[in-house]
Write a structure and sequence with these properties.
Length: about 325
Amino acid sequence: MKFLKWLLIIIIAIVAVVIIYGATQASQMQVEESIEINASANQVFEEIRDFEAWDEWSAWSKMDPDMEQTYSGKKGTIGYKSAWVSENSMVGTGSQEVIEIRENEYMKTKMLFNGEAAENFASFTLSESDGKTTVIWDMLGAETPFYARIMNTIFEPMIRESYQTSLKDLKEIVESKPVEIPNPLNLEIVEVEGIKIISIRDTTTPDRISNTLRDLYTELAIYMGTNEQVKMDGMPIGIYHTFSDDMVDLEAAFPISGDAVANGRIMLGMTPEGRSLKGVHMGDYNASISMHYAIEKYDLANDEIALKGMCWEIYANDPGSVDSADVRTEIYYPIK
């Protein structure tokens, strides 16, 4: 009997210690892990916001590859939800629903486990710098009664390890995908045919480009006026051989049909043909320099292309017949 008495005392003491220890712990379990991924925030966010993609990197999903999963709502929006049923006791049943989201920056979810009403929350915070994205993944567990808080200390290391493993796998998956090259101005690679032209080549300064082109087009128009067999067959073209802060080597050109003969400064030729990087600028001609900068930046970021140097512009409509915002300049750079 004494043995049973002491055994009971020991059991009561252990329970008391557990309860007292639990009462000193936080009422909610908190976990936070982070990782840096060599990719844009957009690339990372595409993986995070798609619950169906979690099977590839989430340690939770990998605990039971045979679990039954369902999805509802629109991916990447509030209300998007996943639910699961598993015979694995560590996975059980539950759901996860997006309750807050900011594109490429933040996503917060509400989680329910095993039919309990207590809500758990997790969030992803993304910040991009110099082409790399830091991902912070945190979890805030449901409020826990003081006598059950010991369970938080048991599960916290397991959840922390699963977060670390998941983030490492997410990093590996994202970094293994093709690098995304920003293309906000919708540049495109096109195949172009050579255009038969007459042209005049000259040099000028950057601030005199418009005036120089106007004078050269006037000279070309006079030539065509004295040659009835030559017809203009398209909109004016400006070809730029070199460009610096001090000097611009350019060529004013008209696409033509018919037989033309070189005469003095009037030259016959063709525009380049083959693969070219094309951009379209809408608005004042003088502001089109922003498109040229964008093309050069895109070229530097894309290892699959290389600009050959010179470029040309097609002034696709008459600024005198459309609003200034609708003036269209098509810009082409030959690429290797």
